[in-house]
Write a structure and sequence with these properties.
Largest sheet: 5 strands, mixed
Distance between the termini: 48 Å
Number of helices: 6
Radius of gyration: 23 Å
Mean pLDDT: 84
Number of strands: 7
Strand content: 15-25%
Amino acid sequence: QISKPIARVIHKAGEISGGSYGDKIEEKSNTKEINELITSVNNLAESLKKQEVLSKQASLDIAHELRTPLTTVQGNLEGVIDGVMELDDERLKVMHEEILRISRLVDDLGRLSKYESESLKLNKETFDVAELSNQVIKSFETDFKNEGKTITFSGHNITASADRDKIKQVLINLIANAQKYTKEGGKVEVISFKENGRACVSVKDDGIGIAKDDLPMIFERFYRADKSRNRKYGGAGIGLTIVKTIINAHGGEIDVDSETGKGTQVTFKI
């Protein structure tokens, strides 16, 4: 009764080390600690299996994100070289936008690598979270207006001891995400409040929402709920991973409440 489930765990651990995650261990024991060990190994196998799937998908997503703009630039340049296209301002603008897409992806990948490294350092200072939120909102106002959307802020002045630049990055990513998934005529609300002595900010939209099955995965690297790779909604799936990494580094929390077709609310507490 003791040795059989332990032997199965040893065998399973060997399979995991070889990259094979297989089926769950079904053996049960009358010993509580052995059952806990079996559960832990099963959970480990499931977690590693998910990470492997995400890793493989990441390669495909990054290749796609790079291939699309590179193909556009290459096609235009070859057309100009062959003399079948004119190198006018409009064509230069198209190529410039595609290069900017590549640049943003590279910047996001570099930022993610930096934030996920063990050497991530927080340069903490005391600042007003509400004031910072307003500053970030102002940088988005023109884009929101051009797209026929609105963005508002409400709340009180709340001070926090945190890395101001990194919290600014969190706000930028969350608002940019809300903007992408909010349709024309929609609105995004940024709300600051205090809860149990912590500074909190919510970014709420009335956009397309997130499916229930996708919610547990949205903070995973390169995960995208939108499988169609639509250029309007697409992205490499890095922004929310950066957000969670920064909030975790501050010892904070982040929660997501969403319903398909009704919108999403993301709240972080530091």
